[in-house]
Amino acid sequence: MDKVTTSRLVEMKQKGERITALTAYDAPTAALLNEAAVDVILVGDSVGNVKLGYENTLPVTVDEMLHHVKAVKRGNSRALLVADMPYLSYELDPKEAVRHAGRLVKEGGAEAVKVEGGLEIAPAVKELLRANIPVMGHLGLTPQAVHRLGGYKVQGRRPQEAEKMLTDARVLEGSGIFALVLECVPDQLAREMTRKLPIPTIGIGAGPECDGQILVIDDLLGLTQGPAPKFVKRYAELRPTALDAVKRYVSEVQGGKYPGPEHTYTSPKASLAEEH
Ligand code: KIV
Predict the structure, then answer these.
(1) Is the pTM of this model over 0.90?
(2) Which residue from 25, 58, 167, 175 has the fewest beta carbons nearer than 10 Å?
(3) pLDDT tens per residue, range 167-195
(4) What residue ranges define each of the domains in the chain, with the CATH number in brackets?
(5) Which atom of ligand 1 is nearest to the CA of 214?
């Protein structure tokens, strides 16, 4: 199978081929996604709340991202490997953005980075491109802005918000991003942006008319606990299955049922003591 590149994604949009994207945080999951021919693997800063036990994505550091990007790189061969830039690693200074993204690319093996925000981060996007680092944008519900947004809410419902998002998308596209994630955006707005932009839109809670879709892998597999957002479709329910397996293990060890003879090594002689 051919390696997926940023230009291949643009070509997929032009041909009307839907783009598939999922998050991954470790090598075995990346290998699984490759086997299923997923086009884009995002090492999301969702690693913070999904895997590292943080309340949200804000505490995630470049070093933590790097650790997971390296692991995913080892399991990936085909998908385009995109790494999220964590909060405050790109907003303050475009040169700092290049330094941090450069580590994700040079040390981690990422092939592109993703940044959240619009107009305000255009200088960072341009600087990253000057350093030959492809950039994916992210508009709508941008989780790094959770405190400003007042929670995880649908964005762009009001006409002024929708207008601002369209402007931001145009500016980002003009700055050179190769694709744009739209998170929790009404489907009409996502459709309009998808039609107006020459680059692919990748939706998460943005309706069916984006050029592609992305989900957090743990949501798709049913590994996350508690109620999921409306846009999540659980294709499996692995958490209850895992919980049941661990409970049975505990009960069998406590009851002396595990390990059985089939899990036990023996020596050819009945007992080493018999040799003497
Ligand atoms: O961090 C993440 O996983 C993301 C996706 C949900 C788009 O940004």
Answers:
(1) yes
(2) 167
(3) 999 999 999 999 999 999 999 999 999 99
(4) 6-236 (3.20.20.60), 240-275 (no CATH)
(5) 7
